[in-house]
Design brief:
This protein is mostly helical and 98 residues long. Helices cover 66% and strands 0% of the residues. Helix 1 packs across helix 2 and helix 4 packs antiparallel against helix 5.
């Protein structure tokens, strides 16, 4: 997929140098850098919790959640969302009514 983005001049210069040294394209250098950053970010527990929250709030799909979590955790998220949608509290029972 091709996207367009603005990159600060200093990063473009650094990417150009890295591309010459590694004999890769500037696009490959930038893609690898983004991929490495995302792998690091996705490994953080807080990031995984935020993915869960986005799913519960209906901002992302279960398919997207599956890209970030292992299958066991993704299934737990799916079950939690089902319970959440049914109005059950975290303890497994129905939420108290006032």
């Amino acid at each position: 997929m091709k996207i367009t983005l603005r990159v600060p001049k200093d990063l473009v210069k650094r990417a150009n140098v890295a591309a010459k040294i590694t004999q890769k394209s500037r696009g490959e250098i930038m893609s690898e850098a983004l991929r490495d950053h995302l792998v690091e970010l996705e490994g953080e527990e807080a990031f995984k919790e935020d993915v869960f929250d986005l799913y519960l709030d209906g901002h992302i799909s279960l398919r997207t959640v599956n890209q970030f979590l292992d299958s066991e955790n993704a299934e737990s998220v799916r079950i939690s969302k089902t319970l959440f949608d049914q109005g059950q509290g975290p303890g497994g029972g129905s939420a108290p009514k006032e």
